[in-house]
Amino acid sequence: MTAVAPEDPVSAPVRRVLARDDLLSLAQDAEAAVGIVQERDAPARPLGAGAAQRAALERVIGGEQDLFGYALRRQLTLAESSQEWAVRNHAYRHAAVIVRFCRLVGITPTVDGVPVPDEETERLYERAAAELVDPADRRWDAPLDRSLGLGVMTTYETVRDRRLRGDLDGAQDLATRPDDYFLAGAVERYRAMYEYELGVCLIRKGQPAQVRQALIESDELHWTQDRVANLDTRDRVHFVLGLAAWADGERGPGGPDAALGRLVQAREHLVAGVGLPPRRTRSQEEQRDVRLLSVTLALGEYLAARDEPQAAAVVALADEALAIADRIRGRWRVIARSQGPLAIAFRRLYGDIALLTSRLAGRAAAELGLRVTLSAKQTGFASRMRTGRTLIVNDRVRTVLDEIITAEEELADPRTSGASTRVAEEELADRRQELRNAFSAMLADTVLPTPADLPRLLERVGRRYAVDYAALPDTLTPPRAGSAALNWFRTLITPDGDVTFERFEPGGAFEAYFDDAPGRRPWVNRLADATPGDGPDWRGLAGELLPAALTGQLLARTDDDPAELLICAHSALSLLPWPALRLDAGTRLIDRAVVAQTPVLTCLSDAYPPAVTGPALVRLVGADENADAGLKAIDIHDECAAWGIRPGGRVPPHHCTVAPDPNPAPVALGRGLAEALADPAAGWGFVHVAAHGGGLDLSQHVRLPERLSAGHALALPWPGSVLMASCHIGRLVNPEDAEPLSFVMAVLTGGGRCVVAAIDTVWDRPTAGLAADLVVQVRAGGVRLDVALRRAQRTMLWRSEYAWALLAAYVR
Predict the structure, then answer these.
(1) What does the pLDDT look like over 9-23, one tens digit per residue?
(2) 686: which of 2, 422, 463, 584 is 20 to 30 A away, CA to CA?
């Protein structure tokens, strides 16, 4: 068996193209294999009890490894139990595809917790092929004549699997077929797929010059015949000949232009839709678009790698690749927002496009880089909400989500016709508008996102600095744990509207803060345990995370003339106390900037949050109330004093006035916080809560002492300014594969413009003092909540950062 040599003979750019093409091809097949299980095991589409059962199924197979293990076990069970040989063939092949895809993306496939060995796929394909042999024919080399089409497809998948396992000789031998192998029936289109595999085997063995020799006769004699010239798969022959010429460099016939010509031919074939019927199924469109995406991005990377890169052409091709990717993901709405194969593939794909774009100079490339990372993060969370739909109190929100999911499932069904697709898309547009009209534009934009409107986004950033971060894998970097497994990108938007996009490398300070290492625990998630003498290296983190140009401009400001800085974090960066970062030895970020975060940059509504107005709804939970719930008392004396509320063991919600002195006395309310918020006549302008907090996602909550969850908060109207003096409520985990769900997100979705909350466990007394300081400023009038937070935090700079830096301001 010939495996790929340790010193790979293929250049990194060509390896990336090959790896991405394999990833997309396998993701499509694995998506079908997993989707069949989900479709078979889930109830029929009508909602009601079925929606709850589908949610239960998703909880069972919610994680990547669980999802694939569940689907693998179900396919193997079907293969062993079905009475139909064709069903058994498909099930064995689907099981093999799931195993191979898992191996490709770094997931260990398991069945009932037992790892499946890499070589198991060979046995599975042997079993699949055996199902196609006529039982009456006992020869070891009996033809697969029960179904010629299934036989050709089974053999093709076996070739691909052998190549991906490193058995290049075995794959090459199996891919080498006589002409008459493809002449019967409708299998002639598979000839191009076999020839692609043959060519890739030679490229991976370091023999790209032999690809043309192996395929020249077929290319010049077979594919020029009228009856096959218009087969839809011919692009695969052009593609592999182009990749071989690229790998061979200037040594091959035609020099560097040979690769360019073949890649262009492959792309033109796909753009024209050669060989596709006028009325196409969604599956046919999908297969064409996936190949077009692979070829388009490869052509852009080829032009970027030339001695004289054609920047404008590369940007145009990368832009088109992004549009194709978004179009494909739009059709696979439900699946692309889950932990399924295409979701994993698309995260790496967006990483590839961002890597390509980051190598290019100019405004167009920078804006494209920002749009790529926004697309990667703007995944929508209808399906994430579905798993916690019982936590959403509002019946209408739940109903609309169910209707959205039904339409998304219709789009994701490969059997869906063009007419049905249009009906489903119209249904989604209607439901999106319903969310905008009945609830909020932000809820509609995050549940069913649309492509970013960049000019509008830049206008909303206004006179602020904004830094958008994204952490993305790519198709060439081996999957592994830690920050080194991801490519980090950042976009800087300046007050004059300039946009720059770059890749950056996290360093030692980042790793010490976020990553586990032998003998060292990261500081993230345990900041309350740190002492002033401990790390992390705040100055080092600023130097690694902030663009140098931004740091220089911030240092030019003064304490009394701070810049406005908007941060859209991603991955673990959302758990960083940004105000405490040091720009230099004597200057913190908070000294030179009003720092605010936004969960989703595309959801900015206006340039700045408004000044706090009244009336205020204040809920400070007393010691006796906490004791009744088995909770520790919290210190609310300073906050009571700031509002003029009488302290005590039981402190009911109060109506307070936000106005300069003299202020009217607070009025105790005879109803809870949620009921008071839901009163449309109240006209609240500010909410202040001091209570225990905890949980994650839609179950994140405050204890009043009854639980008010994020799912409940999502159904409530919220005023423009909200102060949550509670542990963890500002813990807005912004995952790499979906948009965030949290209490803060619920408040912003429900009308909040600025929310101040804690990103971790906070110290009781300092937090109460900070909150009281904010209240005093607010009651003095004319101040924004994020500005008031900066002022209050700067009065505590003499204390440990952990006493003040864990409160963060979030805006939309």
Answers:
(1) 899 999 999 999 999
(2) 463
Q: Which residues pair with 492 in a beta bridge?
A: 467, 500
Phi, psi of 52 (to 5 degrees): -65, -40
Q: What is the DSSP string of 406-465?
A: HHHHHHH-TT--HHHHHHHHHHHHHHHHHHHHHT-HHHHHHHS-----HHHHHHHHTTSE
Q: Which pLDDT score, from 0 to 100, does residue 348 have?
A: 92
pLDDT of residue 431: 78
SS3 770: helix
Return all residues near 723 (Cβ < 8 A) that are at least 6 apart.
686, 687, 688, 689, 755, 756, 757, 771, 774, 775, 785
Q: Are 224 and 181 in contact (CB under 8 A)?
A: no
Please check whether the domain covering 616-811 is classified as CATH 3.90.1210.10.
Answer: no
DSSP H stretches of helix in 521-636: 538-545, 548-555, 589-592, 623-628
The distance between the two most distant Cα atoms of the chain, rounded to a whole number of Å, is 100
What lies within 8 Å, CB to CB, of 383 at 6+ separation is 58, 334, 337, 338, 405, 408
b/e sequence 208-245, b meaning 16+ C-beta within 10 Å = bbbbbebbeebbeebbeeeebeebbbbbbbbbbbbbbb
Going from N- to C-terminal start, the domains of the chain cover 16-167, 176-275, 384-447, 454-603, 616-811
Read off the amino acid at residue 435: L
**β-strand 563-568 against 582-584: which pairing, if any?**
unpaired
Question: What pLDDT shows up at residue 387?
Answer: 53
| β-strand partners of 694 | 701
What digits encode the pLDDT tens for the residues 152-195?
A: 999 999 999 999 999 999 999 999 998 888 876 578 889 999 99
Q: Write the single-letter amino acid at 632.
A: K
Strand ranges (DSSP E) for 580-682? Answer: 582-584, 587-588, 593-597, 616-620, 654-656, 667-668
Predicted local confidence at residue 725, as pLDDT: 93
Strand partners, 491: 468, 501
Measured CA to CA in angstroms, residue 89 lies from 49, 126, 155, 237 at distances of 34, 10, 12, 28
How far apart are alpha carbons 403 and 409 in whole angstroms? 10
Q: What stretches in the chain show pLDDT beneath 50?
A: 1-3, 5, 43-62, 138, 140, 333-338
Whether omega before 495 lies within 30 degrees of 0, making that bond cis, reads no
Q: Using CA of residue 209, residue 213, residue 214, residue 217, what is the dihedral sign? A: positive
Residue 658, both tokens: 């936000």
> Considering only CA atoms, which of 368, 611, 569, 582 is closest in space to residue 471?
569
Nearest to 255, CA basis, from 219, 331, 177, 307: 307
Strand 701-703 relative to strand 707-709, pairing: antiparallel
Question: How many residues in total does the chain contain?
Answer: 812
The pLDDT of residue 109 is 87
The pLDDT value given to residue 601: 85
Measure the CA–CA gap between 525 and 307, rounded to whole angstroms: 47
Q: Residue 259 to residues 271, 316, 492, 663: CA-CA distances in angstroms?
A: 18, 19, 36, 77
**Joined tokens for residue 238:** 């052009």
d(CA 370, CA 385): 26
Return the sign of the alpha-carbon dihedral for residues 331, 337, 340, 346.
positive
* The pLDDT of residue 337: 42
- The answer to whether 659 and 670 are in contact (CB under 8 A) is no
CA separation for the pair 17, 475 (Å, rounded): 9
CA distance 352 to 55: 33
Give Cα separations from 182 to 140, 149, 288 (angstroms): 22, 10, 21
Backbone torsions φ then ψ of 303, nearest 5 degrees: -65, -35
Angle of CA points 28, 350, 291, to nearest 5°: 40
pLDDT for position 282: 66
CA distance 190 to 273: 17
